[in-house]
Design brief:
This protein is mainly alpha-helical and 156 residues long. Helix content is 71%, strand content 5%. The protein has six helices and two strands; from the N terminus they run H-H-H-H-E-E-H-H. The protein has a two-stranded antiparallel ribbon with strand order 1-2. Helix 2 crosses helix 3, helix 2 crosses helix 4 and helix 2 packs across helix 5. The radius of gyration is 18 Å and the shape is globular.
Length: 156
């Protein structure tokens, strides 16, 4: 079977996303180094900070596109270093909620400010309509991947 033009282009996009992901992780690690935050730790702090209420490790993993094991590893390190703390989950004793400590709140505010400067610099010369179109395309692709994963699970 031969790939369609669209499949070839989508493959090129996938490869570019992998490359960009690596560069984003490297940049995030550099940005957070002075705050004792890696990109992975920053992601987890972000999920906790952005959640409307308390959030569990599975919730963090889903929100940030991480594995549960990866999210748990970062949660353990963040808790050990005083960035977050456990709260009881009345619905599930073995899956506690996590919240930011004052140190976590301050660190997240500081990394967010650093990110704003970084994002503004990276966005220089790009225009909003192109960025919205790219975001829309990536969102639709993400929805297709989610649907594909769901269908694959149902076939097992």
């Amino acid at each position: 079977m031969k790939r369609t033009i669209e499949a070839d282009l989508l493959t090129d996009i996938m490869l570019m996303v992998f490359r960009i992901n690596g560069r984003l992780l490297d940049g995030g690690d550099r940005l957070g180094a002075s705050l004792n935050l890696t990109s992975a730790r920053w992601q987890v702090l972000g999920a906790i900070s952005l959640s409307p209420g308390h959030i569990t490790v599975p919730g963090i993993a889903e929100m940030m596109g991480m594995t549960r094991q990866g999210a748990q590893k970062q949660v353990n390190k963040l808790e050990e270093d005083g960035f977050i703390e456990k709260r009881p989950n009345p619905r599930h004793q073995r899956s506690p909620f996590y919240v930011l400590t004052p140190q976590g709140t301050e660190s997240y505010a500081r990394i967010s400010a650093l990110h704003t400067g970084w994002a503004n610099a990276l966005a220089g010369g790009l225009n909003a309509p192109e960025l919205r179109a790219a975001l829309d395309l990536l969102h639709r692709f993400d929805q297709r991947l989610a649907l594909d994963a769901t269908e694959s699970e149902e076939q097992r």
